[in-house]
TrEMBL record:
One of its GO terms (molecular function) is ATP:ADP adenylyltransferase activity. Residues 9-171 form the Ap4A phosphorylase 1/2 N-terminal domain. It comes from Auxenochlorella protothecoides (Green microalga). PANTHER family: AP-4-A PHOSPHORYLASE II, PUTATIVE (AFU_ORTHOLOGUE AFUA_5G14690)-RELATED. The active site is at residue 159. This is Uncharacterized protein.
Amino acid sequence: MASRGGVANSLWTEIGERYDQAQGSGAASTTPTEVQRVRDGDTGVEFIVQVAANLQHKARSSSATLSVGRPPPHNPFLPYEEALWVRHLSPTHTLLLNKFNVVPRHVLVVTREFAPQSGLLAEADLAATWEVLQAAPSPGALAFFNSGPDAGASQPHRHFQVVPLPLVPGTGPGPPMAGPVLRALGDGPGEARPMPTLPFRSWAARLGPGTNPPALHRLYLDLLAGGGVREGTDGLTPDHNLVLTTDYLHLAVRRRERAGPVACNALGFAGTFFVKSREALEHVRREGPMAVLAAVGVPWADPPA
């Protein structure tokens, strides 16, 4: 997960500088959290649960926070705040800081013109996101995508989110769910495969040093086909989440936004939850993290939409 050299690494240096400026000016702010670790009894995976330290902030909306909720009535990406802008990545995509962040240096890969969050991703969406991931210094970064309100989408304007790894200090270099996903995929980059050992419909593909945007887009389409995620006549897709690192791409199909008091977006399928109440934390502990994901995901027994 190392960066591809000094030129690429300069992107994350720039992200850090812009982040410090925005935090210092008040244009961006970090939500304080208390980190808890909850081990799943069935799989042994240790999930990270970040609990909002100041629960009075729970109603505050953001451009695209780690939390889940209804989209605000305005589009914060058109126009975006200049203080949050890092750089243009391409003629089609720009890079912004997340205004209200939980993980420092959390950035958004945003289309420069409106595109629907629930539409099929173009190769350019993955190319811009892949550039940010490959530029990240060791141990790398994680990108995630929330397609549709039941998948935790906070904005209808298309955006990938990228956070540096590790997700919290003192944890492993990769996301907690990387272990079971990569073990199920086996050795070597390859084709899209189902993840039947997970208690929700999901498909994944291992990536390698030779992965490029065209290959990544082909794998993405294969994952959608495997998971039964088909484009509708309106050009939109059923709700789903994507988790992307330089090692793998993982798709999880969604049926609801919440499991009881726990709201879940794509980061849940990476192995971390952001919760705004002690009740939600206790729900994760009592039910188990994988049971939470199973409750918001689609069972394998259900026919594809």
